[in-house]
Amino acid sequence: MKKIGIIGAMELEVDTLKSQMEIKNITAKANMEFYEGSLNGTPVVIVRSGVGKVNAGICVQILADLFSVTHVINTGVAGSLDSRIDIGDIVISADAVYHDVDATIFGYLPGEVPQLGRREFTADPDLVTLAAASCQEANPHLHVFTGRVVSGDQFISDKAEKERIIKTFGGYCTEMEGAAIAHAAVLNAIPFVIIRAISDKADDSAAMAYPEFERKAAQDCARLTAHLVAKIQ
Ligand code: ADE
Predict the structure, then answer these.
(1) What percent of the chain has pLDDT over 70?
(2) Which of 68, 141, 179, 195 would you label with 91, given CA atoms 20 to 30 Å apart?
C-alpha cells in the first residue's frame, strides 16, 4: 500500500496541500508537524521540514521510521541556474548534488560526501516521468525541465557564486534541501523526486525577485504535486 511523504521547507510550500487533504492525525516531532491522512483518496503524510539540509534529512528519517512512507516528494521553490529556465518554470530532479560539500583534498569529487560511494543522488525514474506528465496536465502553460537540482545551506544571490556552482556542478536549479532529502531517501531505499518552481535567478536580482514570485511558484508546484500523488501506483 502506497503512503507518500510530501515535504516542503516552508509553510507556504505545503499550506495549499494541507488545506486540500483529509487529516486523520497530526504528530509533532523535531519541531515539525506531520499531517497524516489522504489527498484525493491517496494516503499521504505532509510536513513542513524547515529550511536547510539538516532539517530536510531529519524530516525524511522521521517519515521513514515513524510513518513507513513508500515514496518521498519534495515540493517548493528554487533559483534558476540555466538561462533557458525562467521564473515560473518547473524543474523536476533527474538527480541531486550538494554544492557546499568539499573533501576534494582527499581525492573526492566536489560535492561528494566521503565514503558514501556516490556524489549524485538519482531520482526515481518512474516518479520523474509521472511528475513531468502531471505537469503537462496540471500546469499546461508552464515550461517543464528535467535535470540536476543542486543544494546547499546558502541562499544564492550573487552572480559569481552562481557561476561557480554552474561551472563545478552544472545543474538546472539551486535550493537548500533537495540533495539532503535525496541523500536520506537513498539511504533508506525510498524512491524520491524533487519538484521545484523557479522563484528567482539565483543572482544579484534574487533578493528582489524572490519575495515577488515565491507564492505563485510555491502554489504551482503544490498543484502539480497533488496531481502527481494520484498517479503513483
Ligand atoms: N530557493 C529559492 N531561491 C533560492 C536561491 N536563489 N538559493 C537558494 N535557495 C533558493
Answers:
(1) 100
(2) 68
